[in-house]
Amino acid sequence: MKYPSVWRKFINGTAYFSGAIACVIALLLVMEVVLRYIFRSPTSWSLNVCMYMLCYMMFLGSSYAFQSHGHVAVDMIRDFADRHDKSGKRISRRILACIGYVLASAYLCTLVIGVWRLFRRAVMFHSKTVEYPMIPQWLIYGPMIVGICMMIITCVFMILDILHGGDEFM
Questions:
Q1: Structural domain containing residue 136
Q2: How far is CA 45 from CA 31, 39, 52, 132, 146, in A?
Q3: Secondary structure of residue 136 in the 3-state scheme
């Protein structure tokens, strides 16, 4: 199965959305600097809002990092596998890539379970953040769950692509 182009476009869209969030964060921080140091009237909310937006940006943009090889890979191990693979088919590199993506998926599955528990507890108890503005915590955990699930789906598509002979994600 080739890596689905529809999924690639969707992940690219979330990357653009993450970039837009980064621009909004930058504008809010510039606004805060101007208000604080020129007008001597800082806001009480902008830093906290920027932290939450940074969390959204990170989790919604991480699938794009997987898809575009932006996450850290251990090149030394891949190079070692290539050096000892005399067949020219790069089978060992294919196996190592699959193992790496399976381990990443396993880690992401445990992470999404933990965040889901926090999300469920926040909804059940109507928890809000302690600082101003008091935002319902489920609004913070929700995008984390979405982003982690997107990373898991991306890993699964990458594994399937590798198993079906693709070389893009090795």
A1: 5-163
A2: 12, 16, 11, 6, 25
A3: strand
Checking phi first, is residue 129 left (phi over 0); if not, alpha (psi -120 to 50) or beta? beta
Distance CA 8, CA 68 (A): 10
Q: Is it true that the peptide bond before 133 is cis, omega within 30 degrees of 0?
A: yes
To the nearest whole number, what is the mean pLDDT of the chain?
91
Q: Tell me the whole-structure pTM to 2 decimals.
A: 0.88
Does 168 reside within a domain? no
Which residues, including other chains, have CB under 8 Å from residue 51's CB and lie 6 or more apart?
Answer: none
Residue 56 Cα distances to 20, 60, 90, 97, 165, angstroms: 11, 6, 37, 28, 34
Residue 169 lies in a domain: no
The token duo for 60 is: 């919604």
Residue 23 lies in a domain: yes
139 domain residue, yes or no: yes
pLDDT digit string, tens, across residues 47-92 = 999 999 999 999 999 999 989 988 776 666 767 766 666 666 656 7
Residue 86 to residue 14: CA distance in whole angstroms: 40
Q: How many domains does the chain have?
A: 1
The CA radius of gyration of the chain, in Å to the nearest whole number, is 20
